[in-house]
Amino acid sequence: MNNPVNDIDENGNLPTWLNWVLAVAVIVAVSVITAGIATAVATALTTIGLATTSTVTSIGVSAMVSGMIVGGINLVSQAISNGGINNINFGTLAFSTFTGSVSGAFGGSSLRIGWQVGVNAFLGGATYVGSSLIRKEIPNMKSLTYSIILGGIGGFIGGSGAMVPGGELASAPFWKEFMPKTTLFTRKFVETLIETMVTNSSKGIIWGVISEILS
Fold first, then answer.
1. pLDDT computed for residue 192 by the predictor
2. Averaged over 62-78, what is the pLDDT?
């Protein structure tokens, strides 16, 4: 029997609670880093008029929320299918979280449904290939084709990006007129933030389920 007091650990596994902590830390870290990169790219696009400040916010929030949702689904799925948290593959967990976060970033953009289908089809294939390689398995064309199709279907179900009709919140008049009025600005910002999170949570769940099927 294991005896942590006397430094005895027959199976060499980390404590169950520590595995959970590390797994959650991986999900949060990957989601935050990917969201940060997506936000930086979107911010750069504002300088050439291809994005607005509200779009930047939507992309960042969507990337982080979707990454955490997809990572959480992958974590639970692995814990169940692999016989416990001690047997999860952290590489697969991190990669699934990453692709989920990327999908969320595009879902929070102003790209319409055609682009969403294409992006998610690509991510479907990438998720399958990446997960296979991490598990040291050889990808096959049949499964890859299936993954691409399923990813595209997920993009179609998710629909156009959250900011297709948006942009008005970050317009110049908004910042000039309401920014000094802290209370009103805060209320509007929180309302928009919650709306974005709710809208993209559904997209994250859809991609999470698809990601698990693909992996």
1. 58
2. 88
pLDDT exceeds cutoff 60 at 122 = yes
What is the distance in angstroms between the CA of the first residue and the CA of the last residue of the chain?
35
Domain that holds residue 14: 4-214
Could you give the number of structural domains in the chain?
A: 1
**Ramachandran angles phi, psi of 107, nearest 5°:** -65, -25
83: exposed, middle or buried (Cβ count in 10 Å: 0-12, 13-18, 19+): exposed
The reported pLDDT for the residue numbered 45 is 83
CB of 106 closer than 8 Å to CB of 51: no
The packing angle between helices 182-214 and 113-134, to 10°, is 50
Measuring CA to CA, which residue among 123, 132, 114 is closest to residue 150?
123
Mean pLDDT of the chain: 76
